[in-house]
Amino acid sequence: MLQKTLKISGLLTFLLCLAAFCTSPVWSADSNMPKSGQSSMVVVDGYFKFHPGAWALYKIHDLKKNKRSTMFISTLEREERDGIPAIWMEIAITPEGEGRVVTRVLMEETPKGPGKPLEVIVQPNGMDPFTVPDSFLKEGEKNAQQPRTIKPQDGSAKTITLKTSKRKLKAIKVEAEDEKGNPVKAIVCEYIPPLGLVRAETKDMTMKLKSFGKKAKTKIKGEPMNFYLWLTMQIGKGLSGGAQGSGK
Description:
248 residues; mainly beta; YmcC-like fold; 3 helices; 15% helix
């Protein structure tokens, strides 16, 4: 039986919400950090693997808004920051019919999985990248909801076999309920880093693995700049009708 526990993660949701917020055209200097409007993601305690170069591509369906998107997640190079072991992780979200936004995060590496974000870089489609201000991170961490732990139902875990183009992998299918009694289903596999997640279904969203592999490289193009300088430049370009930036 599966000994790990499912979690509804506020961490990844916070990072995605932060990226959307920072690139919103209605952002202003006196804005407050928003509440996340995105469906929370399912992770499985103990299955996250810090493998440099690992990547996975997911299809996500927000059932509340009936919106679809793809998510490319990767773990890249390790770096120590102020004595804290950390690893760079990237999440590239491409909503259906819209441009991609890449969020690059220097994440504290802990025995239990990703810790707090130490630095965040965002690059909207077609624009230059920028570094998210520390004040945003602190405010976001303060307002972010804690992950909700969900215990699998007794006897629900079943071992299954996944067939890939190269080999067969053992995976575990498990069912659970959240605190409101809504069903949560997941298929996990320790051989598919970083998330170890094959499929997840909640009341609000579905998340399905499309492909995975090794040798991931950063999707950030160009040198990140100060956010407020970046914002000033975007406003100036908007007024002049000039090109947005060098990002692709």
